[in-house]
Amino acid sequence: MQPVLYSFRRCPYAMRARLAVLSSGVRVELREILLRDKPQAFLDTSPSGTVPVLAANDLVIDESLDIMFWALQQSDPAGWLDMPQDGHALIATIDGPFKSALDRTKYATRYPDEDPTKHRAVAADFLTELDQQINGHIFGKPTLADFAILPFVRQFAFIDKPWFDAQPWPNIHVWLTAFLTSDAFTQIMPKFPLWKPGDAPLCFPH
Fold it and tell me: Which of 54, 62, 154, 167 has its CA 20 to 30 A from that of 39?
């Protein structure tokens, strides 16, 4: 049975899982769902109810980074796993303090006691440091770190794109633009049809 990947198109966690699956060439059955209307089959697979979730035989993986490793450990033609150890620390920062600051900036009404401007500054401090490291890519060539981090930088950028574009981050602007205009981004971001039980499998990558 083909592995099943439950996904939500705009979710940055699901985006990075799809990026790794695409790069690996490992084919999965993609099931696009709505987070506000979760199918029972999805909830039965992973009671946490968060995307992405990968189900392969008796294996269930519901952490996006683990799905990236699952795909790339089977096939890594672009060498994404050939990454300095520092890359893991950068990804941990994105998944922790940066994502926390991003959420409190983007979804300010959910955090009425928090100052979104302060949290935007926290995220900006991280990007200022990251900008100094990027030379085309974070480690000079494409690695796991780039594609685990870019979906979250994209999400942060589009909170207030004019503000983001005005920031003195020349390397980040080039890096993000290259990602947004890449074939890989186009292939992971079509408007997938919503999955329902009984549908013919949608293979990904096509």
Answer: 154
